[in-house]
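Assess this:
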Amino acid sequence: MLHHIKSVLIGMTEEGLDEPSSALSYGISLARQANAHATIQASSLKVVMGSAFVSSVAKGLVNDHNRRLRQLAEEWAERARGDASAAGVTCSIETPHLAYGDLINSFVTQARVHDVSVLDAETATINADRGLIEALVFNSGRPVIVVPPEFDEFRCQRIIIAWDAGARAARAVSDALPLLKTAESVEIISVGNEQDLESQIPGAELAPHLARHGVNVSVKNLVVREGGIAGTLQEQAIMTNADMIVMGAFNRSLLREWILGGVTQSFLQKSKVPLFMSY
């Protein structure tokens, strides 16, 4: 069923932090199983001097820093090429060295012409990859898989759908349908308070639709527990050994959520399984 996926964008941003990438091995695994082409974009964040009055010493330090990051990204890209080749995956490599805004735009442009993008999850409050996740989820028009650390192989045997009957969740389910049809089991999870769940079964209307597509689906409603909606869903994913959570992204800026809190932010920080996100 993965034959619907023909192109996978795998992204990373080199910031000189020497962080491992689960997205690379996970994305290559997905491309191999789908017999898809992988585009590996190993970007490096270019520091741009904003003043004409910066000393020559400072300019030299910045130039050295930029050269180092670009070299690290190119080295990472060559290792990635070797990993893809060893897995039997055809790939193309790009190593853009751009200032932050241009780098984000480059990723978004690429994501729009791929079936799915694969990125590393980031727990830090503010860094380039968090901005990249937000940009691709909200601006690319294509689904994004966010991969937590040490989750190196693509699997979709057991999938949870985070369902609130909203438009974003419906879009995520539609985008994820090739994966849902492949899964051994799909569980539609709705989380709410006891009063709401007594009067309705939010996932009941979605289950017949998925069953008509050949999805092996079940429905479960959960009363929200400590940790909120995100914590309740994460606990269920761990209990059922889920391979993935499919969810629609909340339509407010992650920058606001860094300040105000929110479900999307909680998922990105704490998820123990990959997130398939659409907007």
Q: What stands out?
A: The longest helix spans residues 56-86. DSSP finds ten helices and eleven strands in the chain. Residues 252-261 have pLDDT under 50 and may be disordered. The longest strand covers residues 37-45.
